[in-house]
User: Which sequence fits this backbone?
């Protein structure tokens, strides 16, 4: 068996971990990973067990306020981090910060310490740690923090407004997407064109299998489509 055969076989035995697996993008990532022959194992870390079963799927129910208790479980080839919430869902900005920054960073840090080599993050367009606004500031702060970890490959995706699954869409989101699409039709705000979570997840998985040796890459809308 030559080197290229060994390498090809290794690419068909990948273990993916998914954080935020029950969210809109996370659900799509998990669905596509379970269908992908390159991935032989998919581990998800969730607050409560989802209604999904598959022979490749390993479900870990965790208390995110005590992540260190689960550190030994955070082992694999790649971590897809798609955890996120809103102020309304979280109940306060403090709780939103815990989900959008603290839990994701702590998890990424443990993955890095355990030798996970590849990190794929769902961030947001406009992410900037120096932003005056809370949401892009938190997203930008997380990006800058994970860049300092020891991953061999870091891929950061900055999608615009996401088109989630119909059952998850709220009325304000529907109105916002409709408004942006109207502007897009007359040539305005094309960089903010709404993106479906299925397209985002598909691109993330395609890029996860890329053999390009770029250590850090940030994907904006033009890079995702």
Assistant:
């Amino acid at each position: 068996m030559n080197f290229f055969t060994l390498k090809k076989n290794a690419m068909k035995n990948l273990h993916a971990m998914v954080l935020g697996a029950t969210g809109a993008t996370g659900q799509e990532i998990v669905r596509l990973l379970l269908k992908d022959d390159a991935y032989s194992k998919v581990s998800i870390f969730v607050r409560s067990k989802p209604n999904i079963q598959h022979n490749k799927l390993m479900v870990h129910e965790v208390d995110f306020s005590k992540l260190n208790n689960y550190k030994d479980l955070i082992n694999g080839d790649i971590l897809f981090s798609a955890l996120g919430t809103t102020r309304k869902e979280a109940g306060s900005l403090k709780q939103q910060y815990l989900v959008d920054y603290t839990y994701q960073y702590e998890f990424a840090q443990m993955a890095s310490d355990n030798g996970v080599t590849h990190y794929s993050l769902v961030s947001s367009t406009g992410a900037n740690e120096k932003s005056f606004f809370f949401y892009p500031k938190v997203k930008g702060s997380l990006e800058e923090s994970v860049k300092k970890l020891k991953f061999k490959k870091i891929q950061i995706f900055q999608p615009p407004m996401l088109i989630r699954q119909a059952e998850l869409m709220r009325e304000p989101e529907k109105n916002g997407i409709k408004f942006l699409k109207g502007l897009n039709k007359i040539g305005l705000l094309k960089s903010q064109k709404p993106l479906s979570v299925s397209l985002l997840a598909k691109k993330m998985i395609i890029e996860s299998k890329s053999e390009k040796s770029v250590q850090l890459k940030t994907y904006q809308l033009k890079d995702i489509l």
Helices lie at 3-10, 24-35, 87-90, 93-113, 134-146, 171-185, 197-208, 221-224. The chain is about 40% helix and 20% strand. The chain has a mean pLDDT of 90.
